[in-house]
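WARN  no MSA supplied for this record, continuing single-sequence
INFO  ligand: flavin-adenine dinucleotide
INFO  echoing inputs
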Amino acid sequence: MGDKNVLRFTLNGRQVEVLAEPRELLVHVLREQLGQTGTHIGCETSHCGACTVDLNGESVKSCTVLGVQAEGAEIITVEGLAKDGKLHPVQEGFMQEHALQCGFCTPGIMVRAFRFLNENPDPSDEEIRLGVSGNLCRCTGYQNIVKAVRYAANKLKAARAQA
Amino acid sequence: MIPASFEYHRARTIDEALELLAKYGEDAKILAGGQSLLPMMKLRLASPGHLVDISEVAQLKELREADGLIRIGAAATETALLHSALLRGKCPLIGEAAAQIGDPQIRNRGTLGGNLAHGDPGNDHPSVMIALGASVIARGPAGERRLPMDGFYRGLYDTQLEPLELLTEIQVPTPPARSGAAYLKLKRKIGDFATAASAVQLSLGEGDTCARIGIALTNVAPMPLRLSGAEALLAGKRITAELIEQAAQIATGACDAADDFHGPSEYRAQMAGEMTRRALAGALERARRD
Ligand SMILES: Cc1cc2nc3c(=O)[nH]c(=O)nc-3n(C[C@H](O)[C@H](O)[C@H](O)COP(=O)(O)OP(=O)(O)OC[C@H]3O[C@@H](n4cnc5c(N)ncnc54)[C@H](O)[C@@H]3O)c2cc1C
Ligand code: FES
Ligand code: FES
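INFO  complex generated
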């Protein structure tokens, strides 16, 4: 019982293969087996959202998903947001708008904001707040986080208009 | 925090899930969204030897309407309920409640069937389904059973489901024309369970009298509470502000809430009354416009 299984999934566009016990949470597989420590563990009780990753195109709390459930899945973590050395507009927004202080919540919120803007490319401030409501930040007071997501929304909109 | 060891099985079909349950017996548990079960396993409040994952069984995610019945697969996620045009058009109460559950990440995983089967009085769908007059379909070794949601709960975390049974489908009678509904939930912040919540589904008949009404409360007793007394008070009548007031008082009187971090029991009972007052007024207004 509890034997390790070979687990294969796509992480940030790359095929990965790890050995994991069924009881290992996805966040532990990412951090401990794959060394991808951008995904943080805040509460480990499904409340804070620091462990948010993108699983098959949906935001999930990776402390409340089993690693084995990722078999065959496509996962995006904060490490996958930047492309070719260029920050993703969400990351740029967090920098420009000072949307972090200690930074502990930041990877989870950015991965969530990335997906949220895919689902709702032109959100109101209210919708942004609801969109990232599964992510807690103890430092910023959220004001600048909303501004950062708005920055990214505008930048992505401009890029779409050009394309 | 990690769960105790277990073996993991991913079911592809309903039959496969049932076979796995039959094979591993009471040592097996169904894993749907995992948003209640995994936290309990991390705290070792549950330590099943086998998990049967139904979250990718396509048959359990279907959402359709036929013959006056809305049929929702048990593994449909809250997000799927929220995005369903069918529900928005024909039974908006379900999506209104789903929007007030957890947060976006929780809603992406959590399922309607899991929310109903879990048996936590804080779960929001049970009172909604009772107000709607819904039933669930359970499949097990003895075949298929249809269980009305009213009477489904036996106590805290205790339902009519047998250990080897799988909840496959939720069946909701399609509300007729001139129906209105509301789910009013008081909570401290997003992601919290209700301090008190009230679900109302009503339909108007001739002369704007109340042709059918269902009222039920969330998280103010060990089980969801159907307010039969308030339903009887309003049925067949034109609903007035005085009647709404009386129904709200029945709600307050029916509560058996604990003193806990949600607030003292007296406060929660008063809030159950207030949520019922607002839900009735909201549902009535919507029915008149429907
Ligand atoms: C931070 C947080 C906030 C939350 N807030 C709310 C809230 O505001 N309101 C609310 O209602 N809920 C809330 N929840 C709980 C959430 O909605 C869960 O998703 C739900 O309670 C259980 O559904 P699930 O699909 O995740 O089930 P699981 O966790 O997978 O299973 C729960 C139980 O049901 C059984 N089960 C599941 N599916 C079936 C089936 N088809 N047949 C038979 N048995 C089955 C399982 O064996 C288990 O015992 C919250 C959870 C978290 C982590
Ligand atoms: S670490 Fe997963 S929600 Fe907090
Ligand atoms: S920046 Fe510190 S928790 Fe968000």
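The CA atoms of residues 120 and 157 of chain B lie 5 Å apart.
INFO  checksum written, moving to next record
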